[in-house]
Amino acid sequence: MDMERLKKEYMNISDKIYIFDTTLRDGEQTPGVALTVDEKIQIARKLNNLGVDKIEVGFPASSKGEIESCRRIKALDFDSTLVGLARSLRKDIDAVIDSDLEYIHTFLGTSPSHRDYKLKMNKEQIIETAVDGVEYAKDHGLKVEFSAEDATRTEYDFLCDVFDNIVDAGADILDIPDTVGVLTPITTYALISDIKEKFNIPISVHFHNDFGLATANTLVAIERGANQAHVTVNGLGERTGNCSLEELVVTLKAAYGIDLGLDTTRLYSLSNLVGRLTGVKMPVNKPIVGDNAFAHESGIHVHGILNNSSTYEPISPEMVGHSRRIVLGKHTGANSLKSKLKEYHIDLDDEQFDNVFTQIKELGDSGKCITDDDLVSIAITELSSARETRIVLKGLGLSSGGGVSPTATVKLEIDGEEKEAASTGVGPIDASINAIQSLISDTMNINLEEYNLEAITGGTDALAEVFVVTSDPDDNRSTGRSTNQDIVMASILAVLDSINKLLLIQSV
Ligand code: KIV
Ligand code: ZN
User: Fold this and answer.
1) Each residue of 231-289: pLDDT tens digit?
2) Are residues 191 and 324 in the same domain?
3) Stretch 136-153: mean pLDDT, rounded?
4) Same structural domain for residues 412 and 328?
5) Which end of the chain is more exposed for a tag (fewer CB within 10 A), N or C?
6) How far away, in angstroms, is 361 Cα from ligand 1 center?
């Protein structure tokens, strides 16, 4: 596509586009999310390091804690401009002033719905109140951005009337919120084109994602000359959220070559921090930062990616600080499996490779997602069938009962030499695993990371299936599995299975 021609004929992109991040305000209004002052500071620091132009740090009139967090962030003296939200009310504006902020974002509902059902004000009262807020803030030396809340459901002539008055009152920038996300790309195109033609003042947009169009609409607004976009990390915000910071910034750079001066390599870690602190985890298919954003499973795609990543990736994962993942499953091809095995330094002969490949396909067909740990475990099991098992259980004695600590005596053959040890524990399984650990401590230092016990048949003679994950200090991990009618035996054999595989992993 001839982008330069498209830009010239269809777009009117402004020379400078400002990123106004509202993760700490609208993002915090995500249902169920509340951030502590320290958490807000951590996020603000990362936003500043990323290089966003403005950070809406809070709504000071809403609580004392908000004023405190705004003040503490302000004291950090960031490069990003810090913004405080206020209704068009003098007491709200005072709270922003009290927070030491120099940039205010005032707002007032302008749509019939907000006028009639929420504010109970007529059009004149709306204009009077909004203008008073802007003038009061300007009189206190603040930079003022005014939002006509629910602008996109406001009669167009009245919206222009409000904006005319707000401009006369001295506002520095006008914001158009699509408060309930009703815009579409073409209605955005028309609205922003008209507003840009009529007003000679910077225009900002604040679009919600109710129909999943927030990022697309924000992009169109920028294409039609909007000077600023309100965004949130991970697209957080009221209900279904706002335009996503990472999606917008990356699209502008990748599709149009517009570099906003942000360090995009920080996006993934910022997204993770926000996900962790807010408890809102991203779906795996979330663009740019989701687990699958750079993950490939199908043989055809992996083959392409291994030759040149541009075949099936629009940008490199490094551009956003993410990483590529080759996932195994029913669509896996031989090339993917080979590259995965190479990654783990596992050498299989042709027959072993075919066996592993078949197992991966069978697991995939049964609907299982195959993790790297699974693959290593399958491949190592395949390898171990051709090698001697280094640690073998030779005997087990248990004693437990009222008033005495459960004790296990375990006899193992380790590299051909028999050794025996007794240990106590909170129960017979714990005691047995402690005994194993004491016996192998010369050979290796292992950690039991996971232990899962499942009864796979009913009754007192039920078969127990034990699944364990062990690791060593070098972070090698290995799974082990065993099924037995005796749960202690199943546990010991699963642990030994896992340890033997770990020894193999260490040797490859
Ligand atoms: O969505 C909205 O209208 C808002 C305003 C406060 C700008 O968040
Ligand atoms: Zn909003």
Assistant:
1) 999 999 999 999 999 999 999 999 999 999 999 999 999 999 999 999 999 999 999 99
2) no
3) 98
4) no
5) N
6) 50
